[in-house]
Design a protein that fits this description.
The protein is mostly helical. The chain has one domain: Farnesyl Diphosphate Synthase. It contains 11 helices and no strands.
Length: about 260
């Protein structure tokens, strides 16, 4: 397991500024991928281009709500890891949708490389038990995505109408990692998981006129029960804020 090397100046003047966090994550992503074999990452710039770093931003900001009081720079490696996992998932989706063998094979190689890079980038954490828990959390999300794609290929080959909802799974994992790195209590960690998954669901359904039964079924299959909001149909700003209420009990969030 490798440690993440800071890129340039990653001391943020405002550790809760989403734009600054996004730029710091972007710099680390570019640095990590700059030394990658071009044959494995030729399509990655297209998958990265113009994408907001909401998963990493959620992790960094969420980690600040716990008792650990970690410096923002200390959690940037984990934030970069979840962004790599998301990009790996996009590569896997491309492989699933590909009809030409050479495109599929190239996408799978890219997916495998990004998958390994996500783990290598997770970084060093002083507390071994926390680091192991972070690896377990990242692995669980990865295994869930792999299982969902296997199901798609076996039951709906060539059907991309109901793609695997990558966002809810990775955003939920980012919340889980935030709770682990921030040393949140169980309720706070659960709140970060559920709100992360909820944000992922909202983003995933943003281009749909409504959350139809088919979409709801796909979400139910993708998101672990313990991460899932009670009623995905009622999601919105108020619903997500309600999921975050347990964080208000944490002394680290008091002003």
């Amino acid at each position: 397991m490798g440690s993440d090397t800071p890129v340039g100046s990653t001391i943020l003047s405002d550790p809760l500024d989403p734009d600054a966090i996004g730029e710091a994550i972007e710099a680390r992503l570019r640095s990590r991928l700059s030394s990658a074999p071009e044959t494995l990452t030729a399509d990655v710039p297209v998958m990265l281009s113009g994408r907001p770093r909401v998963r990493g931003q959620w992790l960094v900001i969420g980690a600040q709500t716990g008792a650990a009081e970690r410096d923002t720079v200390d959690v940037l490696p984990a934030a970069t890891s979840v962004e790599l996992l998301h990009t790996q998932a996009l590569a896997n989706a491309r492989a699933t949708d590909a009809t030409e063998c050479d495109i599929r094979d190239a996408a799978l190689l890219t997916s495998d490389y990004l998958h390994s890079l996500a783990y290598a980038t997770l970084g060093a954490v002083d507390d071994v038990s926390v680091l192991e828990a972070c690896f377990d959390s990242l692995s669980s999300a990865s295994q869930r995505l792999a299982s969902l794609w296997t199901n798609v290929e076996e039951t709906r080959p060539g059907d991309s109408d109901d793609p695997v909802p990558i966002g809810p799974v990775v955003m939920g994992a980012a919340g889980d990692l935030a709770g682990l790195l921030g040393d949140n209590d169980p309720d706070g960690r659960a709140a970060l998981r559920k709100a992360g998954a909820a944000l992922g669901i909202v983003r995933w359904t943003a281009d749909r006129s409504s959350l139809d039964a088919g979409s709801a079924a796909v979400i139910a299959e993708a998101v672990p029960v313990e991460w899932s909001p009670a009623d995905v149909q009622s999601l919105g700003a108020d619903g997500i804020n309600a999921l975050l209420e347990p964080l208000a009990e944490n002394p680290a969030t008091e002003t």
